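With this grant's support, we have settled on a layout for protein records. One resulting record is reproduced below.
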Amino acid sequence: HKTGEYGEQNEYRRFPRAPMMCEIITHNQQKYTKSMTVDISEKGVSIKTEDNTMFKSGEVVTITLIDSPFSGTFS
């Protein structure tokens, strides 16, 4: 497998995931929290957070990467 990819786990995925650990801010314009990313793909970002009840399923949430060594800051 290529460096930065999940190898066999990505073999049958339409949108392969790549591990990416960096600090992020998640918010819905009312509630803000700091979290960590787990991985990223063309269709989204997996995050790890201490409070899973902060946001509801289907809610639009903005994720801002805080100056990661991979990409700089972006939302």
Remarks:
- The first strand starts at residue 18 and ends at 19.
- The CA atoms of residues 5 and 18 lie 5 Å apart.
- The two ends are 29 Å apart (CA to CA).
- The mean pLDDT is 80.
